Fold:
Amino acid sequence: MNLPIWLTLFRLVLIPFVIGLMFVRLPGFDVVAAILFGLALATDWLDGHLARRWNQTSAFGAFLDPVADKLIVCAVLVMLVYRDPHWFVALPASIIVGRELTVSALREWMAELGQRGVVSVGSLGKYKTAVQMLAIFLMLFDLFEQQWIYISGVVLLGISAALTLWSMLIYLRQAWPTLSIERR
Structure:
């Protein structure tokens, strides 16, 4: 256990607080939820930075970091759909969650075949994540009022969903030669 891992665990601990605040329909609670989500984003950057800088990377940290990322994103997206069940929130959220499940399963399968590197994170995935996190932050920040900040977040969520589909197709295309080989 080192500081980067503790930061990742802290990010996991933040999830129920962010979700709990999303249930409270009073002014200001959405801003606090957004701030906690932003804190989670900061710890995501910081834990990776420190692990590399201090040479404290580990197999456990490499496993836990993407799990924490996917859990907070998926949990918050489910709650955003609960709070705003319109198609323009539900459809991109479903695409994003579906992609996360598909790509996670694909990476696991490719790892079993000894081909994990075929579906490693590329630059498009990093852009997708940045747009997605900004979208969620903006939607959380203005969840109560749902004014222009929220609407900007919804637009970015749609863009993120498009980037999500694009990156998933790239991963599937990269993996297809390995996946299409008949095994006996």
